[in-house]
């Protein structure tokens, strides 16, 4: 097994020669450490069946099964299926994650690690954009960093939850009320220290963040959220900020990333080309929010 930082890239490392069946305890240790050191790992030439992909998740921690069954693989609910495969009797949800977000940030207890394993890779325009929110925080003006430290940020799924087949013909207000019941808004630390690397992470995304609340429960002006999103490069639909990394992949690639520090955004081919990706998400052994920065 070999782990090499991606040359000339802002983040990421490539892992070759990793085989789960033959991995030693040391290999798994290297893999786990690599997630936090490089934020994004690209494992080459993987040949895992669904059970093997789940086994890899279990080797990294405790699997979180997605709360909405519409995404579940029919035989393996631990696998979230994005996209669909023609001719198969199950379909995943097409065009997932086309917005800046951290997975499960709208939940009370998000997971630290996301893995995706593309099964059908379209020929063009398919990849995932990544942005390091520790670096983005460090780049903010000192006064803005001080304003954000010690605040909470409201996260909700409400903007991007997808209509389910069972929602058809329902009045909109019922669909919206159901979203608030199933995934009530949560208030997370806006800035926390990563439990492994110790860096300060800015936990804000365009898709899920709805504003900041100070220590006394007073809401900060909405313009502050706009400024933070603007300065971190999340408002440009073309994703031109030089800090944004576009990860492309070929069949056999398996991506593992640090879901605390990276926000990501899927790039989907708008053409109705077959595309399918499996996802397994994992709680590592560390508290998600590490130590909250109260200064
Ligand atoms: O369909 C989707 O884009 C799924 C998204 C709303 N949630 C992914 C997650 O884990 O947060
Ligand atoms: Fe995602």
Any descriptors?
295 residues; alpha+beta; eight-stranded mixed β-sheet; 6 helices; binds (3~{R})-3-(2-hydroxy-2-oxoethylamino)butanoic acid; binds fe (iii) ion
| Overall radius of gyration | 19 Å
How many angstroms does the end-to-end distance come to? Answer: 42 Å
The number of helices is 6
One letter per element, helices H and strands E, the order comes to: EEHEHEEEEHHEHEEEEHEEEEE
- Give the rounded overall mean pLDDT: 95
| Total beta strands | 17
Q: Percent of residues in beta strands?
A: 25-35%
The largest β sheet comes out as:
8 strands, mixed
Poorly predicted residue ranges? none
Structural class: alpha+beta
Shape: globular
List of distinct ligands in this structure: (3~{R})-3-(2-hydroxy-2-oxoethylamino)butanoic acid, fe (iii) ion
The proportion of residues forming helix, as a percent range, comes to 10-25%
Provide a descriptive summary of the structure in words:
With about 300 residues, this protein is an alpha+beta fold. The chain is built from 6 helices and 17 strands. Strands 1, 2, 3, 4, 5, 6, 14 and 16 form an 8-stranded mixed beta sheet that branches. A 3-stranded antiparallel beta sheet has the order 13-7-15. It has a 3-stranded antiparallel beta sheet with strand order 9-8-12. The longest helix has 14 residues, at about 25-40. It is globular and about 50 Å long. It binds (3~{R})-3-(2-hydroxy-2-oxoethylamino)butanoic acid and fe (iii) ion (FE).
């Amino acid at each position: 097994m070999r782990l090499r930082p991606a040359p000339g890239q802002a983040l990421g490392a490539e892992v070759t020669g990793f085989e789960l069946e033959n991995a030693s305890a040391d290999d798994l240790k290297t893999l786990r450490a690599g997630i936090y050191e490089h934020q994004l790992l690209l494992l080459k030439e993987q040949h895992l069946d669904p059970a093997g992909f789940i086994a890899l998740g279990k080797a990294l921690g405790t699997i979180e099964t997605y709360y909405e069954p519409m995404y579940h693989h029919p035989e393996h609910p631990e696998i979230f299926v994005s996209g669909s495969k023609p001719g198969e009797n199950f379909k995943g949800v097409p065009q997932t994650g086309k917005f800046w977000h951290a997975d499960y940030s709208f939940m009370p207890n998000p997971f630290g690690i996301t893995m995706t394993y593309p099964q059908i890779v379209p020929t063009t325009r398919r990849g995932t954009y990544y942005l390091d929110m520790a670096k983005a925080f460090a780049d903010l003006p000192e006064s803005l960093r001080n304003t954000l430290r010690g605040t909470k940020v409201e996260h909700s799924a409400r903007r991007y939850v997808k209509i389910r087949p069972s929602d058809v013909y329902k009045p909109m207000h019922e669909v919206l009320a159901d979203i608030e019941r199933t995934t009530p808004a949560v208030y997370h630390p806006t800035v926390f220290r990563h439990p492994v690397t110790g860096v300060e992470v800015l936990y804000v995304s365009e898709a899920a963040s709805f504003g900041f609340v100070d220590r006394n429960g007073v809401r900060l002006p909405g313009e502050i959220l706009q400024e933070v999103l603007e300065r971190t490069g999340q408002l440009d639909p073309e994703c031109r900020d030089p800090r944004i990394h576009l990860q492309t992949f070929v069949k056999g690639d398996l991506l593992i990333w640090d879901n605390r520090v990276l926000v990501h955004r899927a790039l989907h081919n708008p053409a109705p080309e077959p595309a399918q990706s499996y996802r397994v998400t994992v709680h590592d052994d560390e508290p998600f929010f590490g130590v909250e920065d109260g200064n």
